[in-house]
Write a structure and sequence with these properties.
Largest sheet: 5 strands, parallel
Distance between the termini: 27 Å
Number of strands: 13
Number of domains: 2
Strand content: 15-25%
Length: 232
């Protein structure tokens, strides 16, 4: 995920960069409204964190200009102002959500995820990797045209893998996206669920899709590469 933080307070931008980096997200920073407007219009972002009180161009005006120019990237307003009228003004300007300072970083992450999930759902209702496909609306899963029954947790796990096909996912990343925030990623619960998922997805198929990256995590990809570092 690639995030744009338009914020002039160094402590806040440092917190956002360090925190989101741990979530494997890339964060670009703009320190004033004009720079932020330029970056948001020329680069593709999954979400924008936008402060209201900015040098050169305030966040409200910036948000309105982005929407008028056709930029539909989810925008999270981040500001010290917490009055109801300020929240309404921000939402009316085109923001998708609003978070007041000071904030808990876990809430910032949760809100960003929710915004990107809603944005994704507008555009994607079907995912496919090789002959494995899932319908995000009906929760139907098929491989080679054979329907596969899934528990809720198994579907959430498979959805996360397919949205990130070709990328190595650590146990921490998986736990944060599929389990609750306080879940202990060091337990074997993740490994057990992935074994169940493999039994349903790969069993009986010559080409395996879910692979273990020893000491790191897992990856879903549409090729079977034999390596001493991988255990399928």
């Amino acid at each position: 995920m690639r995030i744009l933080a338009i914020e002039d307070e160094e402590k806040i931008t440092s917190l956002i960069q360090r925190g989101l980096k741990q979530h494997k997200w890339v964060v670009d920073v703009a320190k004033d409204g004009e720079e932020g407007l330029f970056m948001a219009e020329v680069n593709p972002y999954d979400a924008i964190i936008l402060d209201i009180m900015l040098p050169k161009k305030d966040g409200m005006s910036l948000c309105q200009e982005l929407r008028k120019s056709g930029v539909n990237t989810p925008i999270l307003m981040l500001t010290a102002k917490g009055a109801l009228k300020d929240r309404i003004q921000g939402l009316d300007a085109g923001a998708d959500d609003y978070l007041s300072k000071p904030f808990a970083f876990s809430e910032l992450v949760a809100r960003l995820r929710a915004l990107m999930r809603r944005q994704r759902d507008k555009k994607i209702d079907h995912l496919k990797v090789d002959n494995l496909e899932i319908n995000l609306l009906t929760h139907q899963v098929k491989r080679a045209d054979r329907e596969i029954s899934m528990t809720t947790k198994e579907f959430m796990l498979l959805e996360y893998f397919m949205l990130n096909a070709g990328q190595v996912l650590t146990r921490t990343m998986i736990s944060e996206h599929v389990w609750h925030e306080n879940f202990n990623s060091l337990t074997n619960v993740i490994d057990v669920h992935i074994k169940f998922l493999r039994d349903k997805i790969d069993k009986g198929h010559r080409k395996k899709l879910i692979h273990t990256i020893r000491g790191t995590g897992y990856i879903l990809k549409n090729e079977h590469t034999k390596s001493s570092k991988k255990n399928s």
